[in-house]
Amino acid sequence: MGVSKKTRDSNIELLRIILMVFIVMHHIISSVIAPGFSSKGFACIDVIFHTAVIIFVLISGYFGINLRIKVLINLILQVTFYSLLLTLIGVYVFSLGSSIDVIKSLLPISGNYYWFITVYIELFLLSPFVNKLLVNLSNLQYKSLVLILASLIFWFGLLRKTNISIDGKNIVYFIFIYIVGGGIRRISLTDKSSKFLTNRFHFFILLLSLMVLGGGYLLPDTHSLFIHFMAYTYVYNSPFLLIMSISIFCLFRNLSFKNRWINYMASSSLAIYLIHEHPLMREVIYVQPLMKLIHLNPYFLFVIVIAFAIIVSVTCMLMDKVRVFLFSLIDKPINKIENKIEL
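Above: the chain's sequence. Below: its structure in token form.
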């Protein structure tokens, strides 16, 4: 969404598709299978899926957001299209919500219909100023900025629970992740032999992360130890989750291949989030169907969750191709608007 690289490598596009599947599985687990960390096994697995949002912002930071009016308008129109369409289906086909929801669906960004989209657009609008700051920083200043922001966010946000970044779902944390992504890019350009960029290093980090999660799973239920463990590993502004996200991103960054089909499908990956997590239709799409299966064997249930998430993701991407065709019909008016506006 709105990054400056003209031709995306398929490794990153494949990662975007996988991340959307992660998000679907995360929503299924957190809303249906193990709400409130009710299942230790599923909760620990969900920590891995919870990296998806952070990695998306890391990708934007790594390639850099190039603010263009056309891209912004297309994003807002895409979100509004699905918000309105799915609300109409929910209200008038499935008798969910009311006519008031139809009116609210016309303003999905300001109405926070999709929290990620709202915060991402805030980042999108601020990106030219953030980019200008980062370009003018020396390597030492860049590192200092990252360390200072990390200290403020993790101490005052995660530990002290102040309003700087209580749960990471805000523009402060997104800017921080964006800067971290840009830092990875800077390292790759200035020190290509850095051990920080090697697969061996990041496989080691992920192995340690899995061991930590395994240790958390084995914690006794007394004194709410497991709940406390999840409180510091699961939330978006957890350093544990950020480190794991960086390693996953770097492993895919180190791949290099091109595949037109993957790139074609990935261009519609955002639709997976917009469709399956619509405030009304999520009940129809995955909450009610999977609620009937929670009594199954956990291992079998996990396989079903994976298969279900993949099917939903592929279906949403294919459905979005119809939306892409419809939007192609209004490309010329949008181009005229962009040409009249000087950034």
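The mean pLDDT is 91.
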